[in-house]
Amino acid sequence: MCVFQARLTIPANISVPLFDVCKRLDLKPIVCHASVCLANWKPIKETTIFNASVIDIITFRFTQHPANRWFFTLTAQVSLFTITQIEAELAEAICAIASACLHGKIEQSTMQHICNAVTKVTSTIQRMEEYVPPNIFYNNLRYFLSGYTQNALAEQGGIIFEGKENLGPQPLHGGSAAQSSTFHVIDAFLGIKHADDVEAFLAQHREYMPPKHRQFIGWVRENAAKISNLRNAFGYQQALCAVKKFREVHISVVTKFIILPAKGNSKIGTGGSSFMHLLHNIANDSKS
């Protein structure tokens, strides 16, 4: 068996305190969704609205292009369950899910809240190109979100943290939308089942979420399974269709920002094709 040796290391004066902080937070020592989106925003001015146009990022300014800010703030908009929005569909959906799991019953409005939230998220992600040109994302920003598990970086086997050499090379995933708890929660509640390879992929990325998010997903999955006739609830099929529509739109966004710019680069293109296969499987799992 061929064993790859990591060629990149992080010096101990950075890696040791980084590991200590990440251990306290129960997060991975790499740029991830929790760090670049959930905990990386501030209001531009005093407002009760929460959306990408009125917030700025705090750090992780990888490039000078406006795409850097917009990519993270727009992603934060569809990930944070804030009740300060004028249109708080996502917060209402999560509250409806929590209430149903807590009381063991579905209200007539539960599925409508989910449908409204997913529809809102679907329209929001289509705004990505307003300030993020696909070529800028692909050729610039994307590299800062790459992990050590795919493409050329996989050949290194991971990254070595000096002072933590006993752990060996760390094959860490980069930042990914799969690390957002939003659709993990919705999938768990609606009882959407994924194939083993897809579930393994999603389970890996749940390890990059804040611990309370992981716990909430598990709690929802456990308690939603106890609700009788959930799949026959009013609006269930509409909610399922909304989730499938979101995933179809997400595929079109990924195609525009990753697959099409990768043409001519066979190595990245192959990786992109494999990733698209995974996304198509996830979308198909959302069928009624």
Automatic annotation (TrEMBL):
Keyword match Metal-binding: yes
One of the protein's GO biological processes: 'de novo' NAD+ biosynthetic process from L-tryptophan
Alphabetized GO MF terms: heme binding; indoleamine 2,3-dioxygenase activity; L-tryptophan 2,3-dioxygenase activity; metal ion binding
GO cellular component annotations of the record: cytoplasm
Domain of life: Eukaryota
Keyword Heme: yes
Keywords: Heme, Iron, Metal-binding
Residues that hold heme b according to the record: 250
InterPro entries membership: Indolamine_dOase, Trp/Indoleamine_2_3_dOase-like
Family: Belongs to the indoleamine 2,3-dioxygenase family.
Protein name: Indoleamine 2,3-dioxygenase
